[in-house]
Amino acid sequence: MPPPQVFCIAADIVQRLRDDAGALAAVPAAPASSSSSAGSVGGAGGAAGESPFSTLHVRRGDFQFKAAKIPVEEVVATTGGLFRPGELLYVATDEADVSFLEPLRLAGHAVRTLNDYLPAGERKRLANPDWVGMVEQVVAAQGRVFVGTYWSTFTAYVVRMRGYQGHAKRSFYSLAKYRDVYATGTERRKGAGWWREWPEAWEGIDGA
Q1: Which pLDDT value is given to residue 186?
Q2: Which parts of the chain register pLDDT below 50?
Q3: Strand order in the sheet with 88-93
Q4: In this structure, are residues 182 and 159 in contact, taking their beta carbons and an 8 Å threshold?
């Protein structure tokens, strides 16, 4: 369980994302590419209480599973239809040069990262700077839709938190082969399964 301060800072970021999404909604959206408008989950608009933004985890850095380090153009092609046209996207990433996210902007989305809400100079607010990853996990768990990186344990814990909240079926992977394992699958873990999260972590646990 993340420390209380992590939840406090994450809640502040989530509120600011909601505010930004509200401000963007008041401005006519720029035309989006076909990949970001086709088949969007839930259609246009949003249900009451639904997050007005979606989230992604794009792992880079020293990630050893090169098959999951796909170009952002491929992420857009695989998952763009999950997002609403012009929807605000928060991206948790360990890539320092966030210009690599430009394909998401070209698809018609406003893009935000941690630096927009908690720049490096302000992270001293955290009692432990290593908690910054937990802040991003809590924020990412609040997206209307979440798209993560397969084989990433960071992504896996985001999915688990979403499972606790009842949002597991709106959690996806950027790799086409595994994109819909939570949305449509009923697969249960057999043996080791660290590379993704499993429904056993959140289903039927209240009476355990």
Answers
A1: 64
A2: 29-45
A3: 111-112, 88-93, 53-58, 146-148, 171-173
A4: yes
Q: Name the residue with tokens 């406003």.
A: 110
Going by C-alpha positions, the residue among 101, 103, 114, 99 that lies closest to residue 17 is 114
CATH of 4-34+51-201, one of 1.25.40, 3.40.50, 1.10.3720, 2.30.30: 3.40.50
Q: What is the CA radius of gyration of the chain?
A: 16
Q: What distance in Å separates the CA atoms of residue 163 and residue 30, rounded to the nearest whole number?
A: 33
What is the number of alpha carbons within 13 Å of residue 37 lying toward its C-beta? 11
**Extents of the domains making up the chain:** 4-34+51-201
Per-residue pLDDT tens over the stretch 61-78: 777 777 778 889 999 999
User: What is d(CA 13, CA 111) in angstroms, rounded to the nearest whole number?
Assistant: 14
Where helices occur in 51-169 by DSSP H, the ranges are: 72-79, 102-106, 114-117, 132-140, 153-164
pLDDT at 207: 66
User: Greatest CA separation found in the chain?
Assistant: 50
CA distance 10 to 12: 5
pLDDT of residue 43: 32
- pLDDT given for residue 41 in this prediction: 34
pLDDT at position 33 = 40
Quote the pLDDT of residue 47: 60
